[in-house]
Amino acid sequence: MRHARRRIIRRVARLTAVGGLLLGGAMVGQAAMAGETPAGSRTTAGSAGSAARIGADLVARLGPGRTAGSWIGADGRPVVAVTDRDTAARVTAAGAEAKVVRHSTDELRSALAELRSAPRVPGTAWSVDYRTNRVVVQGDRTVPAADWSRMTRLANGIGGSVTMERTRGAFTPRLNGARPILSTGGRCSAGFNVTDGQRDFVLTAGHCGPAGSVWFADSAATRRIGSTVRSSFPGQDFSLVRYAGGRAGEGADVVAIGGGTGVRITGAGEAVVGQRVFRSGSTSGLHDGEVTGLDATVNYPEGTVTGLIRTDVCAEPGDSGGPLFSEGIALGVTSGGSGDCTTGGTTFFQPVTKALSALGVRLIVSGAADGGRQPGGAAMSSDGAGRGALAPGAAAPGSSAPVGGGSGTESLAARLTDTRNIGPGLLVIAGSLIALVATRFVRAEQDRKAFRRHYSTTWG
């Protein structure tokens, strides 16, 4: 009876150890897959980037007199607006879709110039929507009827290239998100980490505070981040916050999107109309939407900002300065807009490339020499772990990465128990192997003792 129980125990131990090996192998495989960009995302990133380049190259080659911008179509192909059928044939031959329109880029730019030269009306904004071949003028609820009527007459005088529309809410800077940064002037969001080659900075919105503003990571003002050393607002909307310690620290190449996960930023680029984009902020979390216009002008109550990206991504107070990105490419930092993440709205972004050029800094890139501080890359910016977080839709923010930053002193236990790492799986495999070896050793020892007992009683 005792021998039968031992055999059952040994058999259960061996089966448990074998099951542990299979489970550990599955955990390691899952962790490895989690660190990669899904195949579909890689395809989307490549095709979207290629479509944008093809469209932009054709517009530049054919000129502003015969084209009217480009965008990404619903099928992912580049679409180029042209003013005549001969130019359309050239676009088609180059592998893009052509759409014959009435107004050229030159005409649209002329309309923008007339709008800028008119008396400023707070609460209005305009941008070029290449898909409709129009300059879209928006007025929020604060614009008086008399001012709106005057702007409508101006638009009618310009011609059919301008369309007017009212919007909900009011156009305001989103002062008050990604990872929050706080000062006496309010709360904003960190954008992207940048460097001048010697020191690191946070790139954020200019309206968040003038030069000299001191920023903290907590409301008690005990964890100092740094101070604003350069700021541009109005006109443009960007600023530099120099880290108090001189360096951005661990995780400078990752944008956090909530739940302990982040997106690795691999470069900087220009936004394209029709492109699916993502915004992260500490107030409203991660949200996605589409680029709806470029070269936007917004007349905030605090002043006018030009050259912005217009989107239908929502944002709320506190999201100012937070990052805009798509497929791992940094596109902009949150400036302002109207609406909220319950009813939706319009949000404008300062293009990253223009800010980098004006400030003489470069984004921090992962995996490059000098700690990733090379041109063309991007960096960790925000938390995104806010309320109302939205799972990305068809497009992907970028390849996943664990969120770094902070003290950089994550414990060994935390790393080993993180399901995104291979540590737990390796521990299970190691434990199972030890159990198998121990089971084999115990059986061999029991057999040896039984052999000795048998012969000692037989020959004793």
Write the SSE topology:
Blueprint: H1 2-34, H2 39-62, E1 67-72, E2 78-82, H3 85-93, E3 97-100, H4 105-117, E4 124-129, E5 134-139, H5 145-158, E6 162-166, E7 172-173, E8 180-183, E9 186-189, E10 192-195, E11 200-204, E12 214-216, E13 224-232, E14 238-243, E15 254-258, E16 261-264, E17 267-268, E18 276-281, E19 285-300, E20 303-311, E21 323-326, E22 329-340, E23 344-351, H6 352-359, E24 362-363, E25 400-402, H7 412-417, H8 423-459
Parallel strand pairs: 2-3, 5-6, 17-22
Antiparallel strand pairs: 1-2, 4-5, 4-19, 7-22, 8-9, 10-11, 10-24, 11-14, 12-13, 13-14, 15-16, 16-25, 18-19, 18-21, 19-20, 20-23, 21-22, 22-23
Shape: elongated
How many helices in DSSP terms?
Answer: 8
Terminus-to-terminus distance:
25 Å
**Uncertain runs:** 33-46, 374-393, 405-420
Give the overall average pLDDT. Answer: 79
Task: Provide the gyration radius in Å.
Answer: 29 Å
Strand content: 25-35%
How many strand units? Answer: 25
Class from secondary-structure proportions: alpha+beta
The largest sheet has its strands arranged as: 18-19-20-23-22-21
Helix percent reads: 25-40%
| Major β-sheet profile | 6 strands, antiparallel, barrel
